[in-house]
Specification:
Bound molecules: adenosine-5'-diphosphate, magnesium ion
Largest interface: A-B, 34 and 37 residues
Radius of gyration of chain B: 21 Å
Number of helices of chain B: 10
Number of strands of chain C: 12
Strand content of chain B: 35-45%
Number of helices of chain C: 9
Radius of gyration of chain C: 18 Å
Largest sheet of chain B: 11 strands, mixed
CATH superfamily of chain C: P-loop containing nucleotide triphosphate hydrolases
Helix content of chain C: 25-40%
Largest sheet of chain C: 6 strands, mixed
Chains: A alpha/beta (about 475), B alpha/beta (about 425), C alpha/beta (about 250)
CATH class of chain C: Alpha Beta
Shape of chain C: globular
CATH architecture of chain C: 3-Layer(aba) Sandwich
Order of helices and strands of chain C: EEEHEEHEEHHHEHEHEHEEH
Number of domains of chain C: 1
Strand content of chain C: 25-35%
CATH topology of chain C: Rossmann fold
Structural class of chain C: alpha/beta
Distance between the termini of chain C: 39 Å
Number of domains of chain B: 2
Number of strands of chain B: 21
Distance between the termini of chain B: 40 Å
Oligomer: heterotrimer
Chain lengths: ~475, ~425, ~250
């Protein structure tokens, strides 16, 4: 079946509402409301953390208290009261916590089942994806651990990694995104709760996709996960993350940090399908998604590739970046960002060329509908000495309707003549002719939009691992429902 | 807070009282607003997004004072080198100098000193000066307006087509004793269907510190056509900032070109506001910098009315330790449908120490638009150099040919042939000098 | 000394990959040699190395032309001693007109040979004449070099340059590719008209077709970086039937 027809059929199948909006009723352990040293000591104690990590968190808190929330992004939201939030929420542990999947609270398994993420190993896509499921502040289950351990791969929750691989955590934590990097990263450094940790030893090609599924459930709770992926010489990993949250009238804060490290000849492929609750059609509720993602291509010929499909969140502020230190290293950024109704997204990337013959590719597709604002903001910087550096950037925007905005703000800075930088941007809309053609062939206008937009995003979507690509295509259609009259 | 504040705005109240038209409420209000705005922002700094890449180091470091009427008016001042002109207006240190100027003789074309217009409180001129401006991103335009004093006012009546180009030369002198800043100001008004080719040339002594803070205000009536060519050929030690603004009503046509070749730090900023349906603008340019010069070209195009079109192409060459900046923003307002707005910037870096920063920007609030921008930077193509060499052309000549061709493509976009040739010659001379160095 | 082009045991690499693995070839003045071979065998590499294109590393051997040590010379010096390459993929140069380019090239060569520059009128006359012979429309002369030219126009433009610059050895790198049969005929006539006792040709081609029109004196087969066979014009005709399958990579 041609994928276009498939898309249309899928779109037909699914109905308008945000389908992940349900709430799981489960007893929680919560940190006291508000942010103080006590909150941080509480979180650290809950996780039984070593002293150095507590100190690290406290240092971040004192830095953060001196910082100001950034204003430069093209997003507008009411002031966040950081004292009116819970910084830690975890499903109540029954006894010592689950030893295996069989011991995980059935209510939780049920939640992930409903989200389409079965955590029972035999059911997970015939063993091609291992999943770490993060529910509010903690990881509730990680599948296929044993199978991965055979190869020496560590895939576990961040909290577990602190105990299992303390040297690695200590060495690399904050080495790509320093605490003082920005306001939200600094906040995360102080209060981060859980997240995923991946370590692939030298010369290993990770045999399955690693995936983390983030779920915000509790009310008035921020989610501050922290992900650290280290890939040693000559190794490879493909990592995916998915995110959803219940439908609530209040805004919820999500401030994550992701750090990737690729050594000589290593490759990391990082894919995201972000579908946090976007708020209702009037702009009420939804997630504030303030995320710092950065990868360091430390090694020669290393490669980091970011692919993101951003359809959710009320406000998105996110710039997955690559620091191309190693000679001949490669950075890629493929992005689809869709905003509808009152959503606002300010997203893009930074490619910092330091090593010789470093290459980067940026393909960004922004789609704005409703009254939303969609901004691509990107930086390509070639430092002196990065001879032979190359960048190609392409940023296309599509506007649906006349009440939205699409913006492109690239910064291109070159300090060496022996580099080639090319940037192209275009803005267009779905033309009446295109819509008419589809409708004349029997498609509804929404099906037509889904079809055309999927075509517009194709270059990006095809970079997603197969299992995600189909999901993402559906999402593209659903996110734009109600965008044409 | 900054040095220029002190000597320039410290005795501002006294100074302002002595400026022409001080008795006119609108004029004093205009100056006071500008002064307040400058005071609150100060000299350009990276916190001002529009000035992210360019700092006016000399203005920060040296005690500049406002250029007084020049005692030493030169016998001749160099401009674009165009021979056939309808008029040639000369400003020295921002002051209109009738002795050096050749006034227009054609009926319906008039030139006056800005000072005389301000003294007479000429409503039409004040109205043009008083159009709403956002000084928050343009502190130097604010400073110039705070000291609104002299300059030239050029008027073309309805339906008049000025036969040959009119050139306005803004020449600055240098004073070895104290660095000075001049505020040349040009006000241009084109009547309905009027046509004009305007050449603005900025020049000064080859050596010696001075600063220029120029503002050009252009108002066009329906269906007017303007060709507006700017040549910035300041001396090596000059700080040059100029801010141009042109509003286009219905069916107005604008063709602009900005050639920047001089100065230690130069910034030319042009803002076009497409206010009437059917208006069309082309804004192209070229720049070349060497040594440790900083050369900034910034454009902003506001598509406020529907069915307006703009097209921009800029090219630059950076040698030595120079730094080139191109910032171009295309802003399509809500409901401004059926817009075409294109933009392109290509830069060549000729040396390891050179740098280019480029920020093309689209801000779009309407859906029926076709907007694009492109940017490239790199070195001369090896393939092209080799091709020429394989035909017997030596490496130096081959590179020179390619550089000339690179900039030459922009001069080909100047529809006035004489100006196109004159600007190409200026660029050629720059390249020759570079080669000899 | 005019003993033509002499290549001895030439070895050339791109990066770590050896492309030419010991080429021996002599092209005497006035003789037409053809080099045939499968795609990727190194034909263009050989042409580029002779004319001095950067990006290749000569790891062994020598090239001399009329006694000059070619490998020690700049590309323009090679042009000045009479070497000409008609490129397989001629590059586009925006902003430089065809006329201006050719004038600069002609005068550079004259200068290098200690001759006086051509006066503009004489040059234009020469150019028009040659363009006419190649059936090139005159407006192509005023256009930017190769910009927006069709594949065939680019190749004919290369032939025009050859005619104007009058080299001693012209290397034609797949000049026939992308040309229809009429264009091939025009190109071949142009070449044949220039055949003379003091002008040699090295005609590189994948197909035998061109050699029906430019009948070579000697035909070489280049495969996997080596000249594997040399013969007369009949060798080309044989290859037309059998193809290059018989030449397999050296172990
Ligand atoms: N710039 C290059 N980098 C790497 N390999 C190249 C490059 N140019 C050519 N090659 C390789 O060199 C070999 C010979 O190429 P070429 O000389 O173009 O062959 P031909 O002209 O006979 O088709 C081919 O294998 C080709 O892939
Ligand atoms: Mg070839």
């Amino acid at each position: 079946m041609p994928s276009t027809i498939e898309t249309v059929e899928t779109v037909q199948e699914l109905t308008g509402a945000y389908k992940y909006g349900f709430v799981t009723d489960i007893e929680m352990d919560m940190a006291p409301k508000g942010l103080s040293e006590d909150t941080i000591r509480y979180i650290s104690a809950q996780k039984n953390e070593p002293e150095w990590l507590l100190e690290w968190r406290l240092k971040a808190l004192s830095l953060w208290q001196k910082m100001e929330e950034p204003k430069w992004a093209k997003v507008d939201y009411p002031k966040i009261d950081y004292q009116d939030l819970y910084y830690y929420a975890a499903p109540k542990k029954k006894g010592d916590g689950p030893k295996s999947l069989d011991e995980v609270d059935p209510e939780l398994l049920n939640t992930y089942e409903k989200l389409g993420i079965p955590l029972k190993e035999q059911e997970i896509l015939a063993g091609v994806v291992a999943v770490d499921a993060v529910f509010d502040s903690v990881s509730v289950a990680t599948t296929y651990k044993a199978k991965l351990e055979e190869k020496g791969i560590i895939f576990c929750s961040f909290s577990e990694a602190v105990h299992r691989a303390p040297e690695l955590v200590k060495k690399y934590l904050g080495s790509v995104v320093p605490q003082s990097d920005n306001y939200f990263a600094c906040l995360n450094s102080a209060v981060f709760s859980d997240g995923s940790f991946v370590y692939v030893p030298k010369g290993v090609r990770c045999p399955m996709e690693l995936s983390t599924y983030f779920r915000i459930n509790a009310q008035n709770t921020g989610q501050f996960e922290r992900t650290l992926i280290i890939v040693e010489e000559g190794s490879y990993v493909s990592y995916l993350e998915g995110c959803t949250a219940p439908q609530r009238d209040e805004n919820q804060l999500h401030a994550a940090v992701v750090e990737l490290i690729a050594l000589d000849d290593a490759e990391i492929k990082y894919s995201t399908v972000q579908n946090w609750y976007p708020g209702d059609a009037e702009g009420k509720g939804g997630i504030y998604n303030f995320v710092t993602k950065r990868g360091a291509c430390r090694g020669k010929r290393s490669k980091i590739s970011w692919t993101q499909v951003e359809t959710g969140s009320a406000v998105t502020w996110k710039y997955p970046s690559c620091i191309l230190q190693g000679d001949d290293s490669v950075g890629e950024f493929y992005s689809v960002a869709i905003t509808n109704n009152a959503q606002q997204a300010d997203t893009g990337t930074k490619m910092i060329h330091i090593g010789k013959n470093t290459r980067s590719t940026i393909v960004s597709k922004g789609i704005a509908a409703g009254r939303s604002d969609n901004t691509y903001r990107g930086l390509v910087r070639v430092l002196a000495g990065a001879e032979g550096a190359r960048n190609y950037s392409q940023c296309d925007s599509l506007l649906i309707g006349d009440k939205c905005g699409a913006h492109t703000v690239p910064y291109i800075e070159s300090r060496t003549p022996f580099s080639t930088l090319e940037h192209e941007a275009t803005t267009a809309r779905i033309s009446d002719d295109q819509l008419f053609l589809c409708r004349q062939r029997g498609l509804s206008s929404e099906e037509a939009v889904a079809l055309i937009v999927n075509g517009f995003c194709k270059e990006v979507l095809q970079n997603l691992p197969m299992e995600f690509a189909v999901e993402a295509q559906k999402l593209v259609g659903i996110s734009l429902e109600g965008s044409v009259g | 807070m900054n040095v220029i504040n002190t000597p320039l705005l410290q005795d501002y109240v006294t100074a302002a009282a002595a400026l022409p038209g001080a008795g006119d409420k609108r004029i004093t209000a205009l100056r006071a607003d500008a002064a307040a705005s400058y005071r609150s922002v100060g000299l350009p700094n990276p916190k001002i997004e529009a000035w992210k890449y360019t700092r006016l180091k000399d203005l920060e470091a040296l005690p500049f004072s406002r250029a007084e009427a020049s005692a030493l008016v030169p016998d001749t001042v160099e401009g674009s080198g165009l021979a056939a002109l309808s008029a040639r207006i000369v400003l020295v240190d921002g002051r209109f100098v009738p002795e050096l100027s050749v006034l227009p003789t054609q009926a319906g074309v008039s030139v006056a000193s800005l000072r005389s217009c301000l003294e007479a409180g000429e409503a039409a001129v004040v109205a043009i000066l008083d159009r709403d401006v956002d000084f928050s991103q343009a502190p130097l335009a604010a400073l110039a307006s705070a000291y609104l004093d002299d300059g030239a006012v050029l008027k073309v009546e309805d339906g008049v087509s000025v036969s040959k180009p009119i050139e306005v030369v803004a020449f600055s002198s240098t004073d070895p004793a104290t660095p000075r800043i001049a505020f040349p100001r040009l006000v241009v008004s084109l009547g309905k269907g009027a046509e004009l080719t305007l050449v603005e040339s900025f020049s000064g002594p080859a050596l010696g510190v001075y600063a220029v803070d120029a503002v050009t205000d252009i108002a066009m009536a329906e269906g007017a056509k303007l060709k507006h060519y700017v040549l910035q050929a300041e001396g090596r030690d000059a700080t040059h900032v100029s801010t141009g603004r042109c509003d286009l009503p219905k069916d107005a046509r604008y063709e602009g070109f900005i050639l920047q070749l001089g100065g230690k730090v130069s910034r030319h900023e042009m803002r076009l506001r497409m206010l009437g349906e059917g208006s069309d603008a082309k804004l192209n340019g070229a720049y070349a910098a060497k040594g440790d010069a900083i050369c900034d070209t910034t454009t902003q195009v506001d598509h406020i009315a529907a069915e307006t079109t703009t097209d921009q192409v800029f090219k630059g060459i950076l040698d030595g330790k120079s730094k080139g900046i191109y910032q171009g923003k295309v802003h399509v307002f809500r409901d401004a449908q059926r817009i075409i707005g294109n933009q392109m910037h290509n830069a060549l870096l000729l040396s390891r120490a050179a740098e280019v920063d480029c920020k093309p920007e689209l801000e779009i609030y309407a859906d029926d638009v076709k907007c694009s921008h492109g940017a490239t930077c790199g070195e001369l193509s090896d393939e092209q150099v080799f091709y020429l060499r394989s035909r017997g052309v030596d490496a130096v000549t081959a590179r020179a040919m390619l550089l000339e061709a690179f900039l030459g493509e922009t001069f080909a976009m100047i529809s006035d042939e004489a100006v196109s040739a004159a600007f190409a010659a200026k660029a050629s001379a720059w390249l020759d000098e570079r080669e000899r160095a | 000394m005019s003993n033509g082009l002499v290549i001895k045991d030439l070895r050339v690499s791109i990066g770590d990959k050896e492309i030419l693995k010991g080429i021996n070839l002599t092209v005497e003045p006035g003789v037409v040699h053809a080099i045939m071979g499968p795609n990727g065998s190194g034909k263009s590499t050989l042409a580029h190395v002779i004319s001095g294109r950067p990006g290749y590393e000569v790891t062994g051997g020598s090239i001399t032309f009329d006694g000059h040590d070619v490998l020690e010379m700049e590309p323009e010096e090679r042009a000045a001693v009479g070497l000409f390459l008609a490129f397989q993929y001629p590059v586009e140069i925006p902003g430089v007109t065809n006329v201006n380019f050719l004038k600069t090239a002609v005068n550079s060569l004259r200068k290098a040979r200690g001759e006086k520059e051509l006066d503009p009128m004489a040059f234009l006359k020469l150019l028009r004449e040659k363009a006419k012979a190649l059936e090139l429309p005159e407006d192509m002369l005023k256009r930017q070099l190769n910009v927006g030219f069709s594949g065939g126009e680019k190749k004919r433009n290369e032939m025009l340059q050859m005619a104007v610059l009058a080299p001693k050895l012209a290397i034609l790198d797949e000049t026939d590719s992308g040309l229809d049969i009429d264009a091939i005929r025009i190109v071949a006539e142009g070449v044949n008209a220039q055949r003379s006792p003091d002008r040699a040709f090295l005609v590189i081609t994948h197909y035998q077709r061109l050699l029906d029109y430019i009948v070579p004196d000697v035909v070489h087969v280049l495969a996997y970086g080596k000249i594997v066979e040399t013969g007369g014009a009949d060798l080309a005709r044989r290859l037309e039937k059998t193809g290059y399958a018989e030449y397999t990579p050296a172990a």
